[in-house]
Amino acid sequence: MPDSFSRSLRQLWTLDKFAYSFRVFLAFSGAIALSWSQDQIALAIPLFLGIIASALSETDDNWEGRVRALLVTLICFLVASSSVELLFPWPWLFAPGLALSAFTFIMLGAVEQRYATIASATLILSVYSMINIEQHGGTTDGNFWQQPLLLVAGAAWYGAISVIWCALFSRQPVKQSMAQLYRELGEYLIIKATLFEPLRGVDVESRRVALARQNGRVVTALNQAKEMIFRRLEGQRGSRKLNRYLRLYFIAQDIHERVSASHYPYSALSEAFFHHDVLFRCQRLLDQQGRACKRLAKALLLRQPFDHGQSEQALEDLRASIVYLRAQRNPAWTPLLRSLQALGRNLATLEDQLSSANNPDAVADQKDASLLNRSPRSFKDAWERIRLNLTPGSPTFRHALRLSTALLVGYGVLHLVHPTQGYWILLTTLFVCRPNFGATRRFLRQRIVGTVLGLVVGWALISLFPDPLLQSLIAVVAGVTFFANREKHYIVATAAITTLVLSSFNQVGDGFDLILPRLIDTLIGAFISGLAVFFILPDWQGRRLHKVAATALTNSTLYLREIIHQYEAGKQDDLAYRLARRNAHNADAALSTVLANMLQEPGHYRKKDADEGFRFLVVSHTLLGYLSALGAHRGTLTPSGADIEIHAAARRIADGFDSIAASLAARQPIPELNDEQSALMAIFEQEPAAAQDDADDERRVIQTQLLHISRQLVPMSEAAARLVARPVEVADDDKAAEAT
C-alpha cells in the first residue's frame, strides 16, 4: 500500500495542471480560513476575486522574474481597481475611461506575451472591482481604499505562493514542457508512419493535412520549451540540470528535423515496392520510434530510464529489407533505393538521438548553444513594437478596437436597461470576445453552455447544502476545478466558476437571486461579443490568407538558403541555421492555424478559400519535408569545387520560390516557372562525374533531394495562383480592409 500510494503521488505530481491547481487551492483555503477566523465571510469575495485575477496573470518565469512580474501586476491591479472605485459614480467619465484602458491594455500585448497576460488579467480585475462595488449597493461605503486593497491583497497572497513555489520547484515546469514536447513528437511520428502504409485508394491528402496540423502542435511545444529554458538559463548557464534540459531540447529539434524529412514521393515508393515489405518496415519503425518518444516523455516525468528496444529491432529489420532489395539488382529501383538508404540512415540517426536522450548528460555540449531572446531589450524597442501595430491592418489593433467598443456598448446597455448584476455583461464580453471570429464563436458557445450547466449545478448544491461552511468548501473546490480545466475544457471551467460565484455570493446574500440575472447577462454579453467580432473590423482569416501563405513560403526559402550555406561552409548547428529552421516551421504552423480558424467562419467567407488554402498547405508542408531531409544530410559531404554548379542551381530554386512569394503577398499574377523547373531538373538529374563510390552516392542523394525540391516550383506556383484568383466579393472586402 505505501508503494502504491507513493506511485500515485508521483504520477499526480507529473500532471501539468496539478501544481497550478494546488497553488490555487492553497490560496483559496487561506482566504476562507482568514474570513472565517475574523467572522467576516464577506471578506472572502474580494479576496477570491483578487486570487483569480492573480492566477490568470501568472507567467512562466524563474522566481526572480516572477517577483518582478508580480510587482508590475500588483501596481496595475491597484491602479485599475482604484480608478474603478474613483470613477464608478460618474458614468460619463467611467465609460471613456473603460474604453481607453481596454484599448491601451490590449495594445500592450503587442510588446510580449507576458505583458498581454498581465494586461488581460488587469482588465478582468477591473470588472471584478465593478462587481464587488455593485454587491455593496453601488457605493464605497465611505471607505475608498478598502475594496481595492482587499482585491490586491488576494492577488498578493496568491502571488506570494507562486513566487515561493517557483523558488522551490523551478525546474518542474521545464520538465513538464519537455515531456509535452516529446509526446507531441511521438504523435507526429505515429501520423507520419501512416504515410508509408502501402494501400491503394487511401486518402493521402487528408493524412498530409493531419500531419501538417500535428506539426503545428510540435512547433508550439518547441517554442514553449525554449522559452521556459531560456528564462531559467539567464544568469544560470552553469546549472548542470538546466544544461541537461537544454541538450534534450536540441535533441528534440534534431528529431523534429529528421522526422519532418521526406526523401521521395510516397506514392512512387508505394507503387514500386507494393509487393515487398520495405514500406511496412518503414511504417513500423516510425510507429515504434513515436511510441518510444512517448515513453521517453513519461520517463522524464518519473525520472526513470526508458526502453526503445522495439524501435532498435525495427531498424535492424528495415536495414535487412533494404539489403535484400539491393541484392535484386533491379536497375529501375536504383534511384528509389538511394532514397530508401538515405531514409534508413536518417532514421538510424534519429534512433541514436533517442538513445542519447535517455542519457543527455553523456552528450557533448553543442558549440553554439545560444537561444534567441525575443523579449524587448529597451523601452524604445517595446514602443516600436506597439507603434508598428497601431494600424488597422494589425490583428492586435483590430482586437483592441473591437473589445473596447464591445465593453463600451455593454456598459451602455447595463445603464440603459438597469439589469440586476449588470456587470456580468462586461465580464462575459471580456472572456468571450477573441481576436478572430472562429475563436469567439467557439468560446461564445462554450460560455453559454457552461454557464447554464454551472447555474443548474450551483442551484442544486446550495439547495442541498445550506450550511455556510460546506458552501465555502464547495467554492474552493469549484475554483480549483476552474483553473484545472480552463485551457482544455472551457465548458467545465465555466460551469465551475459559475458554481463558485453562486456558492460565494450566497454567503453574503441570496445566491438564488443571482441565477436568472447571471444567465441573462451572459446571453447579452455573448450577443454583444458576437456582433462586435462580426461587424467591427472583422478579421476574416481569408483576407490575410495570401499573406500568411507568402510568409510561409518566404521562410521556407530562407531555410533553403541557409541549408545551401551549410553545404558550402560545412555543417554547423549555429543560431542562424536553427533560427531559419524554426521560423520555417513556425510559419507553416501559422498557416495551419489560420486555416483551422477559417473553418469556424461563415461559409460565405471560407468555403473556396479554405479548400485552396489546404491545398497550398499540403504543397508547403511537402516542400518543408524535402528541405528537412536536405538539412538532415548536412555534414555527409566535404565541400568541393565540383558542387559549385549544384549550389548555384539550388539558389535558382530559392529565387523561384521568392518570386512566387513576392507575387502572392502583393496579390499579383504568379510567374510561370515551367521552363525554369525543367532546366533545373535537367541539372539535378545529371549523374555525378566522379567515380562510383560512397561520396558519389551521398552526392547523388543530395541531388535527388534538390530535384524533389525543384519539382515543387510548378505545384507551388499553381497553388499560389489559386489563392490569388479568389472570389470577387472576398477580394473586394480585402481591399476595403487594407484601405481602412
TrEMBL record:
Domain Integral membrane bound transporter, first and last residues per copy: 412-529
Domain of life: Bacteria
Main location: membrane
Pfam families xref list: FUSC-like, FUSC_2
Keywords: Cell membrane, Membrane, Transmembrane, Transmembrane helix
Subcellular location: Cell membrane
Transmembrane intervals: 12-34, 40-57, 69-84, 90-108, 115-133, 145-168, 444-462, 491-509, 515-537
Integral membrane protein YccS N-terminal domain span: 70-354
Topology class, membrane: Multi-pass membrane protein
UniProt cross-references to InterPro entries, sorted A to Z: Integral_membrane_YccS (IPR010019), Integral_membrane_YCCS_YHJK (IPR010020), Memb_transporter_dom (IPR049453), YccS_N (IPR032692)
Record-level GO cellular component terms: plasma membrane
Protein family: Belongs to the YccS/YhfK family.
This protein's name: TIGR01666 family membrane protein
